[in-house]
């Protein structure tokens, strides 16, 4: 079968091509491949008529247009004559309009786009077959060198070969409908309507001199409460126009066989099968709120055609195509997922200060950032900073933040990082240099690693502790250094117990692997080993043992206070003992400490209350949680909100929001700032201050998260391993020299970027002819 063999012939050897689907991606792929080799036979199968189309306007980026211009100037010129261009975004909320400029958009009608591509394909000799159902992909593959499946989100090709493509389709919570207005909006418009049924939003943009695309979106429960689930399309369209009468100036909306749908994210583990390849929505989808699916499909077509020309055979070409496009699409899908979730949780943000709300919306995907937005529209960004409370010339990250009696000089936290470098729990010179260097480096708060409350509560033999007075004295040496040598810097301690993840080797000797000798017994909420057959089966703790461990936390907290720590964090994350009580995957108890969420919270809250009672009242306490287990049946975002709410009610001053590391079968959705949506949700639902963590790597990310109201503090780990002076360098790079980032006096001479070798050259003065 064609799907089971390597197919010879790339470039000119790909002679016969079938394209399933006559959307923009399929048509553009057909045109490119025919233009590159006029001798090819290229056939496009489209089930609809030439003038049938769904949706209204299409937005293309400058990057995509540049690729089109390079590959096919004629198509580019035809498109350019049609484009409506604008560079502003209007955000309308509670009758206030906030405008941000410098964005740059180009749009045209989808029908006109298809007409241009039809004309180009016809001129090149592509065989366009309208109202023609394509034969099955397997049948086409037998008689063609290449089959391009551009058959959309409901791809029959993908479905027929699901065992190879490995598709995953995720349906989301919002309902939306594509509509149009017969006038041109003068900006990309986001409008929020707070109705008796719930919050709704409008996304609108012009695509012609007399027409605009209008998308209306809302949570499914709002859609049902408004009765839109039971109305016919005409009634729905009229009702949407009434909800957004201000944006439309009382004018009607129209539909084009429009219906309410829930967005589906499509991914595939493979994009090709023999000589059949997926492009566009058949291969992947990205939520419309960050751009057009047409953009991705056209870019797929460009990459596919280029790879076919560049590679020696089709197998290599399809491999290269996927290798080139998959990272780009994955990045787009991550941004789209962040944007999608933002709109799903829109009701949590409507009470934000008006400019913060607008900034939050603009930066929701994390692709537009504080620094980026400042370049696009400095006056808008300055107004947001002023509302936030930034003194003139002060980036958001260098504004102070108060927790109880502790005022942090800036919003940067050195995240707890296990160093596995102690002996018998004693911090020594390594910890003095490690923590001292990072405090000198400018962070507002430097956190210790997890400090264990007992010898059997250690993760490894190299973990630090606070179960003896000798350890407390050793910690005092470090806190005294920070307070004396880095004035204004704070240092916090994180207290924890390893639970079932204890008695393992140092990280670099085999993470989570049991010791070769000298193992100590471990205990947990339930007798469930971390890795069955690898790690110990822990002892299920009884009432007396729980009371004893609670007292160990109390004694460690007393020593931490004596040692001079400014803040105490209770470690209830990452599958360690207290986290093990919180997760239903690790807590199978049938007594009062298991079962319901309230019961699973019971022991961690008992420990928190006992520690809070002995911890000095003026000093803050925070709690680190895993906001999701990244595993089916485990803790999820909704559970995390309730956990945070419970700790806040018991007096937690902030929640440090991490994720995962609870069960080994987790499947995290890694990416830049990938854990911050969980902090965002807790902050804007519960109203408690949060510390955001998780792949926050740049000062621009920190400023963006703070200014959008997604976090109050940002904790960074690896960046502080790479650069202990990360915070001071962030200040220098932003030209900031204020009180939020004071260089230690002995380091003052290094507060400017060192000069490098000269790279410029004398400018020519004379031109000799």
From TrEMBL:
Residues 743-769 are annotated as: Disordered. Residues 17-333 form the FAD-binding domain. Transmembrane segments: none annotated. Pfam families: FAD_binding_3 (PF01494), Oxidored_FMN (PF00724). InterPro entries: Aldolase_TIM, FAD-bd, FAD/NAD-bd_sf, OxRdtase_FMN_N, YqjM-like. Residues 397-731 form the NADH:flavin oxidoreductase/NADH oxidase N-terminal domain. This is Bifunctional salicylyl-CoA 5-hydroxylase/oxidoreductase. It comes from Streptomyces rhizosphaericola.
